[in-house]
Amino acid sequence: MKISEINRRLFLKQVLAISAATTFPSFWTPAKSRTLPSSPFVSANDRVNLALIGIGNRGGEIAKDLYNTGLCNIVALCDVDMEAPHTQEIIAMFPDVPRFKDFRQMFDKMADKIDAVTVGTPDHSHFPITMEAMAHGKHVYVEKPMTRTFNEVELMMKGGKI
Predict the structure, then answer these.
(1) Alpha carbons 20 and 40: distance in angstroms, whole number
(2) How many CA atoms lie within 13 A of 100 on its CB side?
(3) In the 8-state DSSP scheme, what is residue 28?
(4) Residues in contact with 34: Cβ distance below 8 Å, sequence separation at least 6, in sequence order
(5) Among residues of the chain, what percentage have pLDDT more than 90?
(6) Any residues with CB less than 8 A from the CB of 122 and at least 6 apart, and which?
(7) Residue 41 binned pLDDT confidence (cut-offs 50, 70, 90)
(8) pLDDT digits (tens, 9 = 90+) for 68-102
């Protein structure tokens, strides 16, 4: 087993733990845990290159939580409304990261630089974004509802092979 596989597994385990932890209000967590990471234990080469699709509201919360693990490099930001007030905090956190308004263009230009994506968009767009990411061989973090229909679930279970 390669070291990169172990680190990706660790990343996915921590994603699950973080998603469970975000169900608690932020005032229940210590203030120190809400700061940006400075993890000296993980080298930059061992981090997952993560693209954030949907960076406002819930997508922004997901982005901050995953970044705070210290296990990912944010390599792309994607949101249909980059000028919206609710996206500005994430844009300010990552001012030098490439930005896209269309996830398809992001994959066309940066697929080789992305290991995984988060999908923090409105429910009806979860399926097409997840399918596109899977078609490029990317790991995907998407919250419920993952799809809208049973047919979409079956297509997703086939791994994007239509």
Answers:
(1) 25
(2) 18
(3) G
(4) 26, 68
(5) 66
(6) 54
(7) low
(8) 999 999 999 999 999 999 999 999 999 999 999 99
Say yes or no to pLDDT of 25 above 60.
no
This prediction's pTM: 0.73
| DSSP conformation letters of 72-129 | EEEEEEE-TTTTSGGGHHHHHHSTTS-EES-HHHHHHHHGGG-SEEEE-S-GGGHHHH
Do 53 and 129 touch, CB atoms closer than 8 A? yes
- Contacting residues for 18 by C-beta, under 8 A, at least 6 apart: 65, 66, 69
Q: Which residue has the tokens 């939580």?
A: 65
| Per-residue burial over 57-67, b = 16 or more CB atoms within 10 Å of its CB, e = otherwise | eebbbbbbbbb
Rounded-to-integer distance, Cα 36 and Cα 67, Å:
7
Amino acid at residue number 35: T
Q: Is the dihedral of CA 97, 89, 41, 116 positive or negative?
A: negative
